UniProtKB/TrEMBL annotation:
GO terms for molecular function: ATP binding; ATP hydrolysis activity; transmembrane transporter activity. PANTHER family: ALPHA-D-RIBOSE 1-METHYLPHOSPHONATE 5-TRIPHOSPHATE SYNTHASE SUBUNIT PHNL (PTHR42798:SF7), LIPOPROTEIN-RELEASING SYSTEM ATP-BINDING PROTEIN LOLD (PTHR42798). InterPro entries: AAA+_ATPase, ABC_transporter-like_ATP-bd, MacB-like_ATP-bd, P-loop_NTPase. Belongs to the ABC transporter superfamily. It comes from Bacillus aquiflavi. Keywords: ATP-binding, Nucleotide-binding, Transport. Pfam families: ABC_tran. This is ABC transporter ATP-binding protein. SUPFAM superfamilies: P-loop containing nucleoside triphosphate hydrolases. GO terms for cellular component: membrane protein complex. The keyword ATP-binding applies. Residues 6-246 form the ABC transporter domain.
């Protein structure tokens, strides 16, 4: 059985029109992500990480190349199909939680399903189930203002997962958290991957955050630079990540 969830084939992204000054942000990137993997994307500031995440998440289109997710070729879909695809097959976790303050945690998690028109009767067990996986069953009736940053981000993770997407895409998910809450979120994400086979791709500049991944792709100047896999304990992987970041030199800010 083919377990490929994401297949990026020779993707280029050029910003700017032909008549203007152009910038080649992605320069022939190819990668695979298998079902159940927890993959990190790292690289210096300006290397193309956000651009890569945006083309995979259907928020932007590549200039050249193809992207397949769960067997569908995104580059062949029109905007309407892409919007449906996004809401059914993708889950997002952003740096700043993006929870709606007027809704309870329960309602926030339920939102992707409510928007798809799923009945509240069907929604209830799905929300309870993901809340359990993320350890936030006890805060479902609260509003975002009444819970910690770490709990908000776990609620955001639950919302990303509730419709059982093919992949969760996370952009600096620990960026707004203190170290204790960051650790709690990362352990929850690692648990989703290890215990529940959830597929996650995460962009981060932070080596500690990245050390929770199983595999890391480093990009530089819009191209794949190196790939490392975690086959030892997390602490050793962390040191390995620092070594690769060191190769980018101090002239590059890592962001
Ligand atoms: N909309 C845009 N128009 C022109 N250049 C852009 C645009 N978005 C990003 N870039 C350029 O593309 C390069 C890669 O950007 P980005 O993917 O945001 O890098 P990263 O997330 O790794 O810091 C950068 O040099 C950036 O200035
Ligand atoms: Mg970026």
């Amino acid at each position: 059985m083919d377990n490929t969830v994401v297949h990026v084939k020779n993707v280029h992204k050029i910003y700017g029109k032909k008549s203007e000054s152009q910038f080649h942000a992605l320069n022939g990137v190819s990668l695979h992500i298998q079902k159940g993997e927890f993959v990190g994307i790292m690289g210096p500031s300006g290397s193309g990480k956000t651009t890569l995440l945006n083309v995979i998440s259907t928020l932007d289109r590549p200039t050249q190349g193809t992207i397949e997710i769960a067997g569908s070729d995104l580059t062949r879909m029109d905007q309407r199909k892409l919007a449906d695809f996004r809401s059914e097959q993708l889950g997002f976790i952003f740096q700043d939680f993006n929870l709606l303050e007027n809704l309870s945690i329960y309602e926030n998690i339920a939102l992707p399903l409510s928007l798809q028109g799923v009945s509240s009767k069907k929604i209830e067990p799905l929300v309870t189930n993901v809340a359990k996986k993320l350890g936030i069953e006890q805060i479902l009736t609260k509003h975002p203002v009444a819970v910690s940053g770490g709990q908000k981000q776990r609620a955001a993770a639950a919302r990303a997962l509730v419709h059982n997407p093919a992949i969760i895409l996370a952009d600096e998910p620990t960026g707004a958290l203190d170290s204790k809450n960051a650790k709690g979120l990362l352990e929850a994400m690692a648990n989703l991957h290890e215990q529940h086979g959830v597929t996650i791709m995460m962009v981060t500049h932070d080596p500690f955050t990245a050390s929770y991944c199983q595999r890391i792709l480093f990009i530089q100047d819009g191209q794949l630079y190196k790939e490392i896999k975690r086959n030892n304990n997390r602490h050793d992987f962390y040191k390995e990540i620092l070594d690769v970041l060191g190769e980018f030199g101090t002239s590059h800010g890592i962001a």
